[in-house]
Amino acid sequence: MSGIDKTKMDTLFAIRRLDESGLGPKHIWGDDEIYVLDPIFLEMEFPNATWQLVAAPKDGWSGNTYGFAILVITGLIISALSGFYVHDILNKKETLDKMVYIDQLTGLNNRLILDDRLEMAIMRARRFGGKVAVYIFRCQWI
Prior knowledge:
Elements: E1 11-18, E2 26-30, E3 40-46, E4 49-57, H1 65-99, H2 111-128
Antiparallel strand pairs: 1-2, 1-4, 3-4
């Protein structure tokens, strides 16, 4: 990763993705030796994946409470920022999904929602042996 000089770091970091198919975690970035040093894990859950931020001091945990505190605080900040980011993306997607069916100028339902509801009504009528009627009233102001 650019900007990180590993020779000056006394803490090892790694990122891995937890695989939901049962094949085990996939190492993405960082030092492989970290997993034998009794690391701490911070899991970040997203809609389609779970990621782990893994950290441990190179020399072990004995007498390194300051380093542990820094790691925990860093992990919490990363987790909070990524959570806000994912929340923002999901809210924008929900807003866009709603905008598809509403005319932005008038705020009224548009032709897409009419087509969708009409198709659902026709399928329901076919399934239950009913009928569908459509009455279109067009009003133009001169």
